[in-house]
Design goal:
Radius of gyration: 31 Å
CATH topology of one domain: Jelly Rolls
Catalytic activity: L-seryl-[protein] + ATP = O-phospho-L-seryl-[protein] + ADP + H(+); L-threonyl-[protein] + ATP = O-phospho-L-threonyl-[protein] + ADP + H(+)
CATH class of one domain: Mainly Beta
Number of helices: 18
Main location: membrane
CATH architecture of one domain: Sandwich
GO cellular component, one term: membrane
Number of strands: 51
Membrane topology: Single-pass type I membrane protein
Distance between the termini: 64 Å
Strand order of the largest sheet: 7-9-11-13-15-16-17-19-21-23
Helix content: 10-25%
Strand content: 15-25%
Subcellular location: Membrane
């Protein structure tokens, strides 16, 4: 089992003196051989030769090169197997068993745990499956490395009993579940590498005791909760990787205590905006990546004093201020793309010269030579440019940029070839690809204004298609076009159905400023060490940009074309002016006159009156807190919904500015689209897309003639749509938004029963604080999270709670606030937890479904709903984690919340308080509506039916309105 041999042992000469190998070791080695599919050992008690410390093991009448034993036991009469060792530690121990990179397959043998004198066990890069045994400890292991296998299940608690353990490497497997607190007992641990698994929960408090850690990696997991402040205890830490998790910001100030850090990578944090961490004392820092963290403020000048810093990546933050010269000194080792919310950073598209002949289409063979494929001529893209380059190609017709450094392999490839000679069908461009370790952008330049079809071609060609460790890689990245993320956690192999298989993703996008941008970004997920370290990041085979319009130059002179294209660049300035007027770029006050000057997406009052037949009551489809909603038909036949905001007070204008500012910046398939606005005199109107199937509330619990029979696949699609829409609001959009009033009436259904979230009248931007205490609780009784309802404590986890309630309603077909199976149960959620205790959750299923539903999917949704409604907001998952769990990509570990009559659970206390304290207020607010209005508020799609409740007076002096 030495490198280069799969089924055969490689041997060295040894002395002949034989001493008995202990029987436990004999049995363990033989059992291990029997369980592994391509191992054939014959072990006896006489297998250990050349006694003393560092003896050799003879198997099948030969000496195993890297299997050693210690024969000093019982006065040099008994031997134990001593080491299974990795080349990373050569010279540290004298004897080794070396089973690295041998493609050993089979279930992981529990008998490894019986070799109690084993010092080092290294099974890195094999093909082992199954779960880890629980009999590992206590023993003498110092190094346990299982990187790059197919191991599943949780980490056994018993590993925490191996007091001698100094290195635990479990990267690139399929392990799940929470991190066992017992690992905090490993006081000698130096390296803890857990990346590229599916761990959930939070980092245990016991990890604060790991004060000897020098290397901690947890990339690409589904961990949630805040980054613990106790990381400041890890003062010996040299490297800290927390990329692509579902953890929450901010980065704790104790990070400043890690003065030995050379590499710090913390990205993709959830939660509200956060300030730049204090890193001035991290004088040894060489590489820093804080991308996608919603950082605000300016880049501290203290960063320039970090003299050893070579790489600085701050992609996609909300930083402000000017980019100083010292930052630009990083040149090729810097990425600030989309990092600044102001004009401090100039987009590459802003620096391109306008050509006399604008491109109408573009075809690129990414990573390959120019050629004709399927009758289309593709330009070549063979340049071997790597770290942080921006390259103009074909006389400025297009460009690409690549940023990042491959972890563990600074000289990694930026062009991929068909390394494993895969049998790839389809065009020749699938034989090669362009790569990047972090971010890959392609720009189509000088494109005429209009709508384009973008085709992106992918094929995974860097993993094998067999039963070896080289097939175990998982490449995961995000895909955005024109600033909108169309694909999150995109996995080519999953999408195409295997390696070496091509897949095409198509998108229709608009070009307004002569530039079409495609952005592929690695968010820290997937494997990084299969088949070798440095194999990860975005990969693309070919690109097509094709106009969906006629040649716009017909009948125009070359000068006119240039003028049109150049003028389109002015749109960027207009957008900035509009944002400035709306307060997003520093202005705080917006007057009616300023609103009148904003013409983007503008509709005239005459148009709207004609569309709604002068706001005919027959076209009224809903009544909300802002005013009525009308159905309208434009002159071109497009059907719209018009929300007529109240003009009685200035407050309406202010809320209008809030809505138009946020919603116009948001584009997602699961959000109701805002077409534009109308501002004339006292009229404040919002024009939305029309939703044919009304609201989810009416579909589920409306009158019999209004209800829809939703099949199980449709219900799953609706759940998924709501989750994706919320994930976009919380984590993916540039403006991070908490909706605050997720409920069935605020989920609308289009003609294909796709779910779209509506009503952003209550949504507020997450600003600088981590949490907010509100003196005005805006939401709906029965859907509000306990911490928000009782204390005004607002985070995005309030929406997660509300999603859990709506998910229960979708599965059960019952209203959370109206269904009471027994008098002692306040809400549907209360009953759900009782059924969970009894093991009868499926009793909640809508009886109209009969048996026509997937029990597995139903249990997944129900368990997830209960996880989302955990009383503790920190234990609720992020919405991106919810999406992953709904898709079955991540497991669900929903804690059981016991309910009894004397329960002090925050949820039930909140139920009781809300039921008692707000009953009068709710009744009062409700009674002000006419019978017709109440009916439409429940059944119509366009409602603001929330009730505002005052939180306690004891918050009024110090709280912040949100």
């Amino acid at each position: 089992l030495v490198t280069g041999y799969r089924n055969k042992l490689s041997f060295i000469n040894a002395c002949a003196k034989a001493i008995d190998l202990c029987r436990v070791a004999v049995k363990a080695l033989q059992a291990i051989s029997d369980k592994l599919e391509n191992v054939n050992w014959q072990v006896t008690e006489r297998s250990c030769t050349d006694g003393g410390f560092g003896g050799q093991i003879s198997i099948n009448d030969d000496i195993m090169k890297n299997v050693t034993c210690n024969c000093t036991f019982q006065n040099n009469t008994v031997c134990h197997v001593d080491n299974m060792y990795d080349e990373l530690c050569q010279g540290y121990f004298l004897e080794i068993i070396f089973l690295k990179g041998q493609n050993i397959s089979g279930v992981f043998p529990s008998e490894f745990g019986n070799l109690t004198q084993l010092k080092v066990l290294d099974l890195t890069r094999n093909y082992l499956n199954g779960s880890l045994p629980t009999n590992f400890g206590p023993n003498s292991l110092v190094v346990l490395s299982l990187l790059g296998n197919r191991l599943s299940g949780p980490i056994p608690t018993e590993i925490g009993d191996i007091a001698s353990l100094e290195e635990l490497v479990l990267e690139c497997n399929q392990l799940v579940g929470p991190l066992p607190p017992s690992l905090g007992n490993l006081s000698k641990l130096h390296r803890l590498l857990l990346s590229a698994n599916n761990f959930t929960g939070t980092i245990p408090e016991t990890f604060s005791k790991l004060k000897n850690l020098t290397d901690f990696r947890i990339d690409g997991s589904s961990l949630s909760g805040p980054i613990p402040s106790f990381i400041g205890n890890w003062t010996k830490l040299d490297r800290l990787d927390m990329q692509g998790t579902s953890m929450e910001g901010p980065i704790p100030p104790t990070i400043s205590q890690l003065k030995l850090l050379t590499e710090l990578r913390i990205t993709d944090l959830n939660g509200p905006n956060m300030t730049f961490p204090d890193l001035k004392d991290l004088k040894n820092l060489k590489r820093l990546d804080l991308s996608f963290n919603m950082l605000t403020g300016s880049i501290p000048d203290s960063i320039q004093d970090l003299n050893k810093l070579d790489y600085l990546f701050l992609t996609n933050n909300s930083l402000s201020g000017q980019i100083q010269d010292w930052i630009l000194s990083f040149r090729n080792n810097m990425n600030l793309a989309s990092s600044h919310s102001s004009s401090a950073v100039t987009s590459p598209s802003g620096t391109f010269l306008v050509q006399e002949n604008p491109n109408k289409s573009l075809f690129i063979n990414c990573g390959g030579d120019q050629g004709e494929f399927e009758g289309i001529n593709y330009v070549g893209d063979l340049q071997q440019d790597g770290i942080s380059n921006f390259i103009l190609r074909n006389e400025g017709q297009w460009a690409y940029s690549s940023t990042g450094v491959y972890l563990g392999n600074a000289n990694g490839n930026y062009i991929a070839q068909n390394t494993f000679s895969l049998n790839i069908s389809g065009p020749e461009y699938y034989q090669n690809a362009r790569l990047s370790p972090l971010s890959l952008n392609y720009y189509g330049l000088c494109m005429p204004k209009g709508n384009y079809k973008v085709k992106l071609h992918f094929a995974e060609i860097m993993f094998s298609d067999d039963r070896t460790f080289t097939s175990l890689g998982r490449r995961i990245f995000d895909v955005s076009v024109q600033g909108f993320r169309y694909l999150k956690d995109f996995n080519i192999v999953e999408a195409a159905g295997g390696v070496g298989k091509g897949i095409t993703k198509e998108f229709d996008v608009d070009v307004d400023d002569s530039t079409l941008e495609i952005h592929l970004y690695w968010a820290g997920k997937g494997t990084t060490a299969i088949p070798d370290r440095g194999v990860y990041g975005p990969l693309i085979s070919a690109i097509e940009m094709i106009p969906n319009f006629e040649n716009p130059s017909k009948g125009l002179s070359a000068g006119a074309i240039v003028g049109i294209v150049a003028a389109s660049c002015g749109l960027v300035i207009l957008i900035l002016v509009a944002l400035w007027k709306m307060g997003f770029l520093g202005r705080k006050d917006t007057t009616d006159k300023e609103l009148l000057d904003m013409k983007t997406g503008y509709f005239s009052l005459r148009q709207i009156k004609a569309a709604t037949n002068n706001f005919d009551p027959a076209n009224k489809i809903g009544e909300g807190g802002f005013g009525p909603v009308y159905k309208g038909v434009l002159s071109d036949g497009d059907v719209i919904a018009v929300k007529q905001l109240s003009s009685k007070s200035k407050q309406g204008n202010r809320e209008f500015v809030n809505e138009i500012g946020m919603i116009s910046a948001l584009q997602h398939p699961n959000l109701v689209k805002l077409y534009g606005c109308c501002i004339e005199g006292n009229q404040l109107l919002l024009i939305y897309e029309y939703m044919e199937n009304n609201s989810l509330a009416r579909a589920l619990f409306g009158e019999e003639e209004q209800k829809l029979h939703l099949e199980w696949p449709t219900r799953m699609k609706i759940c998924m749509g709501i989750a994706r829409g919320l994930a976009y609001l919380h984590e993916e959009s540039r403006l991070k938004i908490v909706h605050r009033d997720i409920k069935a009436t605020n989920v609308l259904l289009d003609k294909d029963l796709n779910a779209k979230i509506s009503d952003f009248g209550l949504a507020k931007l997450d600003e600088e604080e981590n949490t907010h205490i509100s003196t005005r609780i805006a939401g709906t009784i029965g859907y509000m999270a306990p911490e928000y309802a009782m204390r005004g404590y607002l985070t995005d986890k309030a929406d997660v709670y509300s999603f859990g309630i709506v998910a229960l309603e979708i599965v059960s077909g019952k209203s959370n606030t109206k269904y009471r199976p027994k008098e002692e149960f306040v809400y549907l959620l209360d009953w759900a937890y009782v059924l969970q205790e009894q093991g009868n959750l499926l009793e909640l299923m809508d009886t109209s479904l009969g048996s026509k539903y997937s029990h597995e999917e139903a249990m997944r949704v129900l368990s997830l709903a209960l996880l989302c409604t955990n009383p503790s907001p920190t234990l609720r998952p992020s919405m991106s984690s919810v999406v992953s769990m709904l898709e079955g990509k991540s497991p669900i570990q929903a804690p059981v919340i016991m309910h009894n009559e004397n329960s002090q659970d925050a949820r039930f206390k909140a139920f009781e308080l809300l039921s008692q304290d707000s009953q009068t207020l709710a009744s009062s607010a409700y009674s002000q509506l006419s019978v017709e209005q109440r009916h439409k508020s429940e059944d119509g799609p366009w409602v603001d039916s929330s009730i505002s409740l005052p939180s306690g007076d004891y918050y009024s002096s110090t709280s912040k309105l949100v």
